[in-house]
Design brief:
This protein is an alpha+beta fold and 242 residues long. The chain has 3 domains: 5-60, Structural Genomics Hypothetical 15.5 Kd Protein In mrcA-pckA Intergenic Region, Chain A, CATH 3.10.290.10; 66-129 and 212-240, 2-Layer Sandwich (Alpha-Beta Plaits), CATH 3.30.70.580; 134-210, Alpha-L RNA-binding motif (Alpha-Beta Plaits, 2-Layer Sandwich). 24% of the residues lie in helices and 29% in strands. It has 7 helices and 17 strands. The longest helix has 12 residues, at 229-240. Bound molecules: uracil. Uracil (URA) binds next to helix 6.
Length: 242
Amino acid sequence: MAKPISLEKILFSQGFGTRRYCSDLVYADLVKVNGVVAEDPEERIPTEGLILNVEGKDWEYHEKAYIAFNKPPNYECSHKTTHHPSIYSLLPAPFVERGLQCVGRLDYDTTGLLLISDDGQFIHKMTTPKKNIGKVYEITTPDPITQYQIDHLMNGVILDDDPRPCYATACKQVSENVLAMTIVEGRYHQVKRMMAAVGNHVAKLHRTEIGAYVMPADLAEGQWRWLYEDDLKQLSQSVDAK
Ligand code: URA
C-alpha cells in the first residue's frame, strides 16, 4: 500500500497548480476527497483508489498518467503549434500542467490512436526503434490499391532521405481503396512517403493500433480515457516480447 500523502501535494502532483494554489483550493472548499469536502490541505490521504473532486469535476488520482486519445484531424501534436490548434487544448488542463507528452506524434491531418503520458521511461520504451513496436494505420487512397503495391510495401521501399529500406510488416486489404498496414519504425511522414513510393497516395490516414493496444471502439473522436493496469500490461507485452 502506498504511503499517505498530504492533500496539497496530491493536488500539485495531479497538475492542479502550485502548492499554494492547491492549498487555497482546499481552503475555498473546492476540493472533495472521496465525496467529502476537505478542510485541511496538510491532511495525509491514502492514494489508492482515490477520487478527488476539484471545482466540481471528478478526478481519479494516478501517480503517473497514461491515456489513450482519439485524435481528430486538423490538430497538431505539439505543445507549441504553428498552424493548427494543439491536441492538448482538447485535454483537461491538469494534463498540460503536469507535462504530458505524446508517445510518437501524428501529422496534423492524421486521425486516430495516440498514447499520451508523463512517464518518461514509458515514452522512451514505447518509441525507441529497437523495440520494433507495430503501429497499424488504416490508409484510404484515391487510386485502387494493387497487389503489386502491397508486395512492394512488404518487400521494402527506399525513401529519399535514407538508403535503408522501409518495410510494411503486415498489409491487409480492407477494400479496393483501404489498406491496413503495420509498420514498426516512425520515420518522418513514413506512411505517406511509403505510399507515394509505390505509386499511390494517402487521402486519409487513421491509426488504429499501437503494439497490442487497439483503439477502443467506443472512444469517440476527440475523447480520451485512462489506461489501467491491464492495458499497460498488454502494452508492455508488445515491448518485452521483442
Ligand atoms: N505516417 C505518416 O505519414 N503520417 C503520420 O501521421 C503517421 C505515420
